[in-house]
Amino acid sequence: MTNIGTLYIVPTPIGNLNDISQRALDILASVDLIACEDTRHTSRLLNHYDITTKTISLHDHNEAARSGYLVDKIKQGASIALVSDAGTPLISDPGYVFVKACRSEQINVIALPGPCALTTALSGSGLATDKFAFFGFLPVKQQAKSQALSTLVQKGCTSIFYEAPRRIRDTLAVCAEVFDEHHEIVLAKEISKTFETYKVGKASEILEWLDEDPVHQKGEFVLMIHLSKREQDDEFVPQAIALLVALKKELPLKRAAAIVAEHYDVKKNALYKYALENLN
């Protein structure tokens, strides 16, 4: 009876090719097949390390159809490595459908530790790391982007996004409109590459820096946002007030204030007092 193979999830460098681990190289050289987001991109890494393992594409447009074929290969005894173009597969990259299919078939899945842009950027940002959330890429359209930033970014938590060079300026412009002075942004650019840059400041300041030189808008970006807690209890973000207004139509005011206070990390009593004075 043929033994079932293994799926290896293998992180690859996000810039500097020396960041790949020896274990990752050993697996890429020993598996029967490498499933790649882009075979042409991965071939440059494999050629650099003289790895001749066969590759097959697995990306957003073919993952649903190809996963079944790859699962069958593993069930027949083949071992497969899953890689993305850069960093850890499945983190804003393809692979979820394939890995889930393997788990449902009780196939052994082994994930290797390795390069990941969001954790690398966060560790070098100087922002709080005790509580953070990753949201991948923001919507493209301005209104949807503004709404996402308004609802996802919460006080006391560092929020992390990926952004493409062609959209980075528009995104910072929206940030400048959405956030008041109680915020700090760190924009990480070209992590682990020759022109790695961390830019720290308010959205308006970073927007000004982006406009100084077109080169500043080129590269791969990690956008990190931290909203600080306000010193005055009676200062509430507009989204908190809007939610309170909506909830008080269906719930007692104290209950509505408690829910909003927990969601936006503000003092319940101060919010309740504000509502009594301004929303009745």
Would you mind describing this structure in some detail?
The structure is a single chain. With 280 residues, the protein is an alpha/beta fold. Helix content is 40%, strand content 18%. The chain is built from eleven helices and ten strands. The strands form two sheets. The protein has a five-stranded parallel β-sheet with strand order 3-2-4-1-5, with helices on both faces. The chain has a five-stranded mixed β-sheet with strand order 6-7-10-8-9, with helices on both faces. It is globular, with a radius of gyration of 23 Å.
Write the layout of secondary structure elements.
Blueprint: E1 6-9, H1 22-30, E2 33-36, H2 39-48, E3 55-57, H3 63-75, E4 80-83, H4 96-104, E5 108-111, H5 117-123, E6 132-137, H6 142-152, E7 158-163, H7 168-178, E8 183-189, E9 197-201, H8 203-212, E10 221-227, H9 238-247, H10 253-264, H11 268-278
Parallel strand pairs: 1-4, 1-5, 2-3, 2-4, 6-7
Antiparallel strand pairs: 7-10, 8-9, 8-10
**CATH homologous superfamily placement of the largest domain:** Tetrapyrrole methylase, N-terminal domain
Low-confidence segments: none
Run of helices and strands: EHEHEHEHEHEHEHEEHEHHH
- Amount of helix: 40-55%
Q: What is the spatial order of strands in the main beta sheet?
A: 3-2-4-1-5
Strand content: 15-25%
Number of strands: 10
For the record, the CATH architecture of the largest domain stands as: 3-Layer(aba) Sandwich
User: Kindly, what is the distance between the CA atoms of the first and last residues, rounded to a whole number of angstroms?
Assistant: 74 Å
CATH class of the largest domain: Alpha Beta
Q: Looking at CATH, which topology of the largest domain would you report?
A: Cobalt-precorrin-4 Transmethylase, domain 1
| Domain unit count | 3
Rg result:
23 Å
* Broad shape: globular
Helix segment count? 11
Structure classification: alpha/beta
